[in-house]
Amino acid sequence: MKVELRDPNIIMKLSRLGSFHQSKLSFLRSFLNEFKDWDFKRDLFDLDKEGFGVAVYSFQKKDRIYSLVCFANKIFDDERSDRVIATKWDAAFTLFDGVPKKKDIERLKNEVPKQEVGRLSYKELTLSRANKSIRVFNHVVESLSNGKQPNLDLLKKVGYLYRTTAVYGSGKFGLADRFRIKNRDEINGPFRLEMMLVYLVRQFTFDQVNHVAKNKNPKKAIKLDPKICKNLGIGNSTGLGMAPFIVNHPTLLNNWILCREQALKKIREIKKGEFKRK
Fold first, then answer.
1. Which of 72, 127, 201, 277 is the most exposed place for a label (fewest CB within 10 A)?
2. d(CA 66, CA 99)
């Protein structure tokens, strides 16, 4: 039975595109499938009592190692802005190719917090910065330091402790160009390294809030419940590049959707009894 492709005038409506279900090929699911069995470690956690300092997280499989380098900075409330023109953030991050040495961390400490004004090297793969949700972060610290879990209703309304204001890659500001790493099997899928940075930043936010609470009240403080952590993510306060990207890349968007529609077409054309589960 021959089945025609569905009408693009219907399929390409924003209301339908926005309601697509994930599949095994979706970038988030493929990302989780790839990195679920890697070895994750916290290699450095040099924060002061208020949670400011340097942290390094690594993940490894066989001979391949990547590391997230975090710089938590003290800024004043009036310096905190989610606008792309901001110059200071609560934390700045880079994903390092391999294990950073002491001299690498010193170099990055001078460049990563500057973000667009700084300059990275081919050893850095992605770059990001993030701001706290002050209301939520302080509430969680206060609750944990007093030996109780935070208010779930507040956490549900916000959904995160930190929100990113940009995640850069592919050669920007001196980062490694894509051609240097494109043949690595683990990052053949889309947004793998960007998602890994955000995933590890999420872990850093949990470690930091626990650390600050513990130092505020060492005798009484408890850690954030892992079940609560599972329901918290990382916010995103800006997506300015996404809209013009779609507008400026109509062929790419067409090809993404066409692949999906062609797969559905072939499935619908399978005759009853032809498909046998292997």
1. 277
2. 7
Residues of the chain with pLDDT under 50: none
Q: Which domain holds residue 155?
A: 37-240
Query: Are 68 and 93 within 8 A, CB to CB?
Result: yes
The pLDDT mean for the chain works out to 92
In this predicted structure, what is the pLDDT of residue 97?
97
- pLDDT score at 102: 96
C-beta of residue 71 within 8 angstroms of C-beta of residue 106: no
> Taking each helix axis from N to C terminus, what angle separates 134-145 and 192-216, rounded to the nearest 10 degrees?
50
pLDDT at 111: 97
Q: What length is written for the chain?
A: 278
Residues 205, 261, single domain; the answer is no
Q: Are 203 and 222 part of one and the same domain?
A: yes
Cα–Cα distance, 90 to 158 (Å, whole number): 18
- Helices 27-35, 192-216: crossing angle, 10 deg rounding: 70
Same domain, yes or no, for 67 and 18?
Answer: no
Take residue 15 and report the two structure tokens written for it. 């209301």
What are the DSSP E strand ranges found in 103-245? 124-132, 160-169, 233-236
Q: Give, for 210, the enclosing helix (H) or strand (E).
A: helix 192-216
Residue 19, exposed/middle/buried by CB under 10 A (0-12, 13-18, 19+)? exposed
